[in-house]
Design a protein that fits this description.
disordered C terminus, transmembrane helix, Diverse_Substrate_Transporter, transmembrane, EamA_dom
Length: 296
């Protein structure tokens, strides 16, 4: 694969990760602007469909090279990826982007925490749980949409499955071939939802252009930036930087979507970020799977 960022113009790894985070959350904000035209289902179909076409063109995977077991792993990976995106976009239709990303982060955080046997690591689960309670619709004075919260948490669950199955996928496939095939499966899952929600509106030229923009910002560009950074950045540092995603999402939501968060919601975000950083430190020291970026 020829990366979008060539070695001659390679960015400092920390800068590349931060740019990837901004790109992902900027893509999510752009996606939300498409909801009035095609809904979250249509937007998911456009994002995943274009991302699949881009990755297939880059990697050109051949099915004949892989066993049925490998292809079954790809199907599971793609299903987790497709459902994660559908649930996440449905959630940000109902709740602010920053809150949805904060809640979604519970998935990868849970993978890191519950793979551990150290008592200290359960502190991170307690911190994250406190953050969720602050956001919860059951909290006193909360006006947050309960369905939006539930969908964001469900997206986090699919993100956890994506990480666990993705580890198997990485061992079975070379380069990004498994990711390309998984994205194709995800596109096939998302497409019926998109057609049912948006119909022929998906084919409007301006919608296709915006959908391609969402795919580039949310998938192709950040993936290239992250791969560039990972070649030179320790996994612990990478995971800690990716833990900033909820904060960046809140900033993008405020600047681009005019979504302001309350003091309680900001405190909840800080607690989840702190838990994610703590879990990242434990994960890297004990060879556990760290919370990864790219969920939203």
């Amino acid at each position: 694969m020829t990366p979008l960022i060539t070695r001659k113009w390679e960015l400092p790894p920390t800068t590349a990760v931060l740019m990837a985070i901004v790109s992902i959350q900027g893509g999510a904000a752009l996606a939300k602007s498409l909801f009035p035209a095609v809904g979250p289902g249509g937007t998911s179909a456009l994002r995943i469909g274009f991302a699949a076409l881009i990755l297939l063109a880059m990697w050109r995977p051949r099915l004949s090279r892989y066993s049925r077991g490998d292809l079954a792993t790809t199907a599971l990976f793609g299903a987790a990826l497709g459902l994660m995106n559908l649930c996440f976009y449905a959630s940000i239709e109902r709740i602010p982007l920053g809150l949805a990303v904060t809640l979604e982060f519970v998935g990868p955080l849970g993978v890191a925490v519950f793979a551990s046997r150290r008592k200290l690591d359960y502190l991170w689960a307690v911190l994250a749980g406190a953050g969720i309670l602050l956001i919860s619709p059951l909290a006193p004075g909360s006006a947050i949409d309960p369905l939006g919260v539930g969908l964001a948490l469900l997206a986090g669950g699919f993100w956890a499955a994506y990480i666990l199955v993705g580890a198997r996928l990485g061992r079975a496939f070379s380069g990004g071939q498994g990711l390309a095939l998984g994205m194709l499966v995800a596109a096939l899952i998302a497409l019926p939802f998109g057609v049912a929600e948006a119909g022929g509106s998906l084919l409007a030229p301006h919608i296709l252009v915006l959908g391609l923009g969402v795919a580039l910002l949310s998938s192709a560009l950040p993936y290239s930036l992250e791969m560039t950074a990972l070649r030179r950045l320790p996994s612990r540092t990478f995971s800690i930087l990716m833990s900033l995603e909820p904060a960046v999402a809140a900033m993008m939501g405020f600047v681009l979507l005019h979504e302001a968060l309350s003091g309680r919601q900001l405190l909840a975000m800080v607690l989840v970020i702190a838990a994610s950083v703590g879990a990242s430190l434990s994960a890297s020291s004990k060879k556990l799977p760290p919370p990864e970026g790219g969920g939203s």
